[in-house]
Amino acid sequence: MRQSRPTLKGLWHAFDEAAYGHDRTLNLRDSLPSGADARARTESWLRMRQVMKSGEVLVITGRGTQSANGIAVVREAVLSLLPSLRRRGIVKSWREHTQGSFVVTLASVAALLGAPKRNRDRDPAGVGNRGKTIPASLAALEPETLALLHRLAVATIESLGVRQAESFIADEMQAIFAKLSTTLPVSADREGTLRRAISSAIEDLEGSH
Asked: What is the mean pLDDT of the chain?
């Protein structure tokens, strides 16, 4: 029996699967969502991929050939969302991969917080050796989360070269928590997601130049 030759579309699909894999690919084309649903799903998925430090990801929107009047509703919805995500520090850049897909480069979690990378050898305030300052408003968080949040607050303050930073740690912890809690996607393990985001930001800040 003669085997059929793979289509060009099939070859591109196989290439994308190999290049990005299931975890780094969002396929909106097959489910045919509305424009609003496509935006919501894309934003939530990209936020989670940012926390997971996925780097480059592939978003497949389709070309709109199955839409009414051939209008690429999903593609246009995603394309209009990306500038907003860039302004909010979630997306770094994007480019058209095919007429029905985009390669999106995610920003670091440190970029989301607006914190520059710090010099690992610098401890201008000496806060790393002092007792931990935990704000009462965050006392409901688990000890592991508080420890990571404290460490990130210290690293962020040090990255700015602030002197006598001990008095700023509690405020910085609250500011970081507020920023991440309103930005991260809602998940069944929300505090676990928060810890992953904090850990990612610490890695970015404490990495070598």
From this structure: 80
